Amino acid sequence: MERLDVYRLQEFILEPLLGITDPRNDGNIDFVGGIRGIRALEWAVDKGKADLAISMYPTSIKELLAVSDAKLLMPPKSTWFEPKLRSGLLIHTF
Q1: How far apart are CA 40 and CA 6, in angstroms?
Q2: Which among 41, 47, 33 has a CA at the least distance from the CA of 84?
Q3: Which positions ≥6 away from 9 have C-beta within 8 Å?
Q4: Spatial distance between the Cα atoms of 87 and 29, rounded to a whole number of angstroms
Q5: Residue 3: partners with Cβ closer than 8 Å, 6 or more residues away
Q6: Cis previous bond, 83, omega within 30
Q7: Contacts 24+ apart (CB under 8 A), 72-77
């Protein structure tokens, strides 16, 4: 999991530089879903709704499966996939 971009963001920027130890519950961080794109991030900063915006390369299915196979949990807000499955379930073939 240490190889995931989102893990490194938490480990090297969010916690040590911004003091965000719990991204799920910290009021100083928000999430913009991938469908809204980079323009939504730019808008938030330009309008003063955010001081900083970070766009991450998407987590791949291969990375998600590797974390799942290791019986670990993905970091918060790191599993935005599109298109969404109609059932809301992800099926992994064994």
Answers
A1: 19
A2: 33
A3: 54, 56
A4: 29
A5: 63
A6: yes
A7: 72/1, 74/1, 74/4, 74/6, 75/1, 75/4, 75/6, 75/7, 75/10, 75/23, 76/23, 76/24, 77/6, 77/23, 77/31
- Structure tokens, 69: 């196979």
> In angstroms, rounded to a whole number, what is the distance separating the alpha carbons of residues 79 and 58?
8
Q: What is the pLDDT along the chain (94 residues), one digit of tens a residue?
A: 778 888 899 999 999 999 999 988 899 998 887 778 899 999 999 999 999 999 888 888 888 899 889 998 887 777 766 666 666 566 667 6
* Identity of residue 17: L
